[in-house]
């Protein structure tokens, strides 16, 4: 008897050959058997769809050790697998249903196998494009005005389902045990972020829940060296947060004002990280219009917000102005800045003939002195730092967006102050990033001596920070 011809054993064949129990030649994109029988080969399908089909096939087989068929045992219910495009993976009709406790079982309880759920969810996100932006995003609100605020997500952001899934629970856990503590150094405000905001506000306002999860995903990506998929996850949640906020901004009320204020604060934090990811293509001070947008919301709902649970968060910006915190060097530098407002021998002095422009520069310097003088209280450092971009005039912000040299120089001095809050993961490197962008817009005649002092302070802080974590300072190696 002739010896039996040997063959290579493999489990990588297509599913059609596996079902028919025949040898697959594993040729891509269609194996020989599928071509011969003129049937579709799963090798030609996208990886996400192949993963779903493979999981379904394995779960349906499930043979026991005795070689019995895969029929369910008498004591257990039959395996009820969801279809490749299950209804519970589709976006809900509107954001108001995404956290409805009566609908919550659709996103978690009906999932028989978490791996299958994850694969199908990935397939659904890959197939569905983002819906068109809401008309509310082009509203005249200062917070969302076109050309003033760039609420763009990271690139390559895809559709995310409205209902929360199992992975969102891990992001919520990250928020509760870690991220909530990193947004302030004031204990009462940390507790507010950890307990009241998720439990009392986010559960009733889906756009705020999406904001929490977006920042939580960014935190994991930034501090835990997670992969780029966390950036994409953050972008998906951010997209839904912005859409939900846009719908509510036209109708600010006692019921939604707290959620809008908190969510807009989180948009600012998101912007700090996303702008640095944009690199040199980013806009100078892109977050300034955003934080001013928070102030616009507060102006409309001040009495409601200050009498509610967010009072500690808002009151940190009510700081007394005093010059006791100014050392002689800082005071001399800031006094020298006033020359930008009246010295006609400097380049571009013709703009000072416009009283609105010269006043905008002068007021910005006055407010900057106040901020430098109130940074001694570490528990209120957030308020001390972020009050300046809120109090400067609209005219100054306009000049900054236009990249006027005098506005850029004043802003660079603010960045020197900003280094104080770079203890937080979401602000690290922001001052140096803004300095580099501003330097590209300034001619040499403006760089020395006008930005020498703030630049030295920013570079020193960057060196200290990177030495502490074992990285080379800027300009001395890979960032």
From TrEMBL:
Residues 13-43 form the Zn(2)-C6 fungal-type domain. Keywords: Nucleus. Pfam families: Fungal_trans_2, Zn_clus. Gene3D superfamilies: Zn(2)-C6 fungal-type DNA-binding domain. GO terms for molecular function: DNA-binding transcription activator activity, RNA polymerase II-specific; zinc ion binding. Residues 64-78, 86-98 have a biased composition (Low complexity). InterPro entries: Fun_TF, Sterol_Uptake_Regulator, Zn2-C6_fun-type_DNA-bd_sf, Zn2Cys6_DnaBD. It comes from the Eukaryota. Residues 58-104 are annotated as: Disordered. The keyword Cytoplasm does not apply. This is Similar to Sterol uptake control protein 2 acc. no. Q12151.
């Amino acid at each position: 008897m002739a010896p039996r011809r040997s063959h290579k054993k493999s489990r990588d064949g297509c599913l059609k050959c596996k079902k028919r129990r025949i040898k697959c030649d594993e040729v891509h994109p269609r194996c020989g058997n599928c071509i011969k029988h003129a049937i579709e080969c799963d090798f030609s399908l996208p990886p996400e769809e192949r993963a779903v089909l493979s999981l379904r096939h394995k779960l349906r087989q499930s043979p026991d050790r005795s070689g019995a068929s895969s029929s369910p045992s008498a004591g257990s219910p039959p395996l009820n697998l969801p279809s490749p495009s299950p209804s519970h993976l589709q976006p809900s009709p509107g954001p108001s249903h995404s956290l409805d406790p009566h609908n919550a079982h659709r996103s978690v309880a009906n999932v028989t196998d978490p791996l299958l759920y994850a694969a199908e969810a990935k397939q659904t996100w890959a197939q569905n494009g983002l819906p068109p932006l809401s008309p509310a995003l082009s509203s005249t609100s200062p917070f969302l005005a076109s050309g003033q605020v760039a609420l763009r997500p990271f690139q390559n952001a895809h559709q995310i389902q409205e209902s929360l899934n199992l992975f969102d629970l891990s992001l919520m856990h990250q928020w509760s045990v870690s991220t909530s503590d990193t947004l302030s150094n004031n204990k009462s405000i940390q507790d507010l972020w950890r307990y009241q905001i998720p439990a009392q506000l986010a559960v009733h306002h889906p756009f705020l829940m999406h904001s929490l999860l977006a920042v939580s995903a960014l935190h994991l990506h930034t501090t835990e060296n997670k992969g780029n998929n966390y950036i994409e996850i953050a972008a998906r949640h951010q997209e839904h947060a912005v859409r939900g906020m846009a719908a509510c901004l036209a109708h600010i009320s006692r019921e939604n004002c707290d959620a809008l204020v908190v969510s807009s604060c989180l948009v600012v934090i998101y912007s700090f990280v996303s702008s640095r990811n944009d690199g040199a293509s980013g806009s100078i001070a892109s977050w300034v219009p955003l934080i001013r947008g928070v102030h616009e919301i507060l102006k409309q709902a001040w009495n409601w917000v200050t009498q509610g649970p967010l009072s500690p968060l808002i009151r940190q910006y009510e700081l007394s102005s005093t010059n006791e915190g100014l050392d002689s060097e800082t005071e001399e530098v800031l006094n020298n800045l006033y020359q930008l407002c009246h010295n006609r021998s400097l380049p571009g002095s013709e703009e000072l003939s416009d009283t609105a422009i010269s006043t905008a520069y002068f007021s910005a310097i006055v407010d900057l002195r106040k901020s430098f003088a109130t940074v001694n209280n570490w528990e209120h450092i957030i308020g001390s730092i972020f009050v300046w971009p809120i109090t400067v005039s609209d005219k100054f912000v306009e000049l900054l967006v236009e990249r006027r040299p005098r506005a850029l120089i004043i802003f660079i001095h603010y960045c020197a102050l900003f280094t104080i809050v770079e203890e937080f993961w979401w602000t690290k490197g922001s001052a140096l990033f803004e300095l580099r962008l501003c330097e590209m817009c300034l001619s040499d005649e403006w760089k020395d001596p006008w930005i020498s002092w703030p630049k030295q302070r920013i570079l020193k802080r960057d060196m200290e920070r990177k030495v502490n974590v074992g990285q080379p300072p800027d300009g001395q190696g890979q960032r």
